[in-house]
Amino acid sequence: MEETRRGRGSRAVVLGAGIGGLVAARVLADTFDEVTIVERDVMPGGGHGRRGVPQGRHVHGMQAGGLPLLEELFPGLRAELAGDGAHEIADLSRVSLRFAGRLLNQAELPVAPVLSVSRPHLEWRIRERVRRLSGVRVAEGLEAVGVTSTVDGDRARVTGVRVAPAATRDAKERTIDADLVVDATGRGSRMPVWLEQLGCARPDEERVVVHIGYASQTFRLPRDSYPQDLIIEGRAPGRRHGFGAFACEQDRWTFSIMSYGAGERPPTEPEERMRLMHQMAPPWLAEALSAAEPLDDVARHAHPTSHWRHYERLGRLPVGLLAFGDAIAAFNPIYGTGMTVALKQGVALRTALETTTDTELPRRFYRAAARPLSAAWALSTGADLAYPETLGKRTRRGALMGRYVARFLAAAEHDPVLARRFLAVAGLVEAPSALLAPAAVAKVVRSPAPTALSLPERARSDVAHAPRETAAS
Ligand SMILES: Cc1cc2nc3c(=O)[nH]c(=O)nc-3n(C[C@H](O)[C@H](O)[C@H](O)COP(=O)(O)OP(=O)(O)OC[C@H]3O[C@@H](n4cnc5c(N)ncnc54)[C@H](O)[C@@H]3O)c2cc1C
């Protein structure tokens, strides 16, 4: 029996027009005649931020593992973004990255390029591409409130989505019929509730409590006035703050101060922000930012927990319904992997659509999507759980790996090849197991015993509690 309903007259609905939803829509447009993206926000023109994507105001970069996929799905987009003034950074010397108190080597050495562009600009450029695809439309200002279904053998089959105008309370709902509904509504996704309503179990959910705060602002710095394009002072043992400063399009720089730990909040007052910058940032950047005009107010964002909803473990799934992007898993944003994972999920969805029937699609997709998810999850939670204040499930293997990564990072301060290898893994170009390649292990083992953390001297006053040797140190 022909189980697929794709083909002539087939319809898909994607909920949410963030990067996840746009990637899903791009892939679905190859298979479905009509793809409707239902988005709660009314879209701003150009690369402006919007309410539904509050993370858009904060530092955002596309990892090296995502960039080729972005180009594969949207040919020519990289050149278009470069023309807008976005930065592709392809040399170690153009970045200053300190992780767990270790500054990666800054030798002139080519690395797989990462993309630095503001999140609203990137989303806008992708959205415009998706809008131009045949059969795709974006239904703005509409909130998805539930799904409709029928019974198909022993399983539920989703037949559409119930929507209501987002701006008007108690407005009348209507239904958009669909053969496939993809929920890309982000970390607030109501998919677990919908599954229960459809007679299925909720997925197991792993959570790691990290309490990361962001406070960010945009500045304009004259082009070519700076030696580097992307600076991250990441989390380090005993430190309450870190920062990220990313060169973006049109000579804009996004500058975020991050706070770590429950009860900590990153400062919004200009004096305190500049004080921290002078403590933590390379002097050229602190000076440039002190002299630059801010282009907007400081925006705050809190990321209390990372989560992974394990849909791939569910035995019974309804036909015609998928979760996608942050609706499945959202990682600690300081590792910058969410958009790359969404692109990898896009590839997994494309393969699943090409190779399976509708009935098998959910299982096939979730299993394939779990592979890139588990790499990103291991990296993000492995690094976070090295800090005693992080709450989550710890394993002996994780602790051993944490100690090895700490040695690796200490060695990568002096060894550009190890620094490049670390970036390739952090950027999801290579699997975490690449850190354990024989040549890398040999170098790490032979490297001198790690010295004290190389935190900027000036940052000594930013101490949450006495620095002590943790698995990350
Ligand atoms: C502070 C911060 C910094 C980050 N930095 C990076 C980074 O540097 N690099 C990186 O790769 N990733 C980063 N991320 C993660 C990245 O933003 C996401 O992983 C990625 O954009 C995928 O998100 P999404 O599209 O699945 O969900 P979202 O971006 O949350 O989009 C969900 C969309 O659904 C809409 N919506 C919600 N509910 C409904 C509803 N009921 N009906 C209709 N529409 C609805 C929302 O309006 C929104 O448009 C960061 C995240 C944060 C919080």
Q: What's the helix and strand layout?
A:
Blueprint: E1 7-15, H1 19-28, E2 32-39, E3 61-62, H2 67-73, H3 77-83, E4 87-91, E5 95-99, E6 102-103, E7 110-116, H4 119-131, E8 136-140, E9 142-152, E10 155-165, E11 174-177, E12 180-183, H5 191-197, E13 205-220, E14 230-233, E15 241-247, E16 252-260, H6 270-280, H7 283-291, E17 299-309, E18 321-323, E19 329-330, H8 338-355, H9 361-385, H10 396-412, H11 416-426, H12 438-446
Parallel strand pairs: 1-2, 1-12, 2-8, 5-14, 12-18
Antiparallel strand pairs: 3-7, 4-7, 5-6, 9-10, 10-11, 13-16, 13-17, 14-15, 15-16, 17-19
The structure holds flavin-adenine dinucleotide.
Q: How would you describe this structure to a colleague?
A:
With 473 residues, the protein is an alpha/beta fold. The protein has a domain at 7-56 and 124-206 and 306-382: FAD/NAD(P)-binding domain. It has helices at residues 19-28, 67-73, 77-83, 119-131, 191-197, 270-280, 283-291, 338-355, 361-385, 396-412, 416-426, 438-446; strands at 7-15, 32-39, 61-62, 87-91, 95-99, 102-103, 110-116, 136-140, 142-152, 155-165, 174-177, 180-183, 205-220, 230-233, 241-247, 252-260, 299-309, 321-323, 329-330. The strands form four sheets. Strands 6-5-14-15-16-13-17-19 form an eight-stranded mixed beta sheet. Strand 5 and strand 6 form a beta hairpin. Helix 8 (338-355) packs antiparallel against helix 9. It is globular, with a radius of gyration of 23 Å. The model is unreliable at 465-473 (pLDDT under 50). It binds flavin-adenine dinucleotide. Flavin-adenine dinucleotide (FAD) is lined by residues 15-21, 38-41, 52-53, 55, 58-61, 143-144, 184-186, 188, 214, 301, 303, 325-327, 333, 336-340, 342. It comes from Nocardioides agri. GO terms for molecular function: FAD binding.
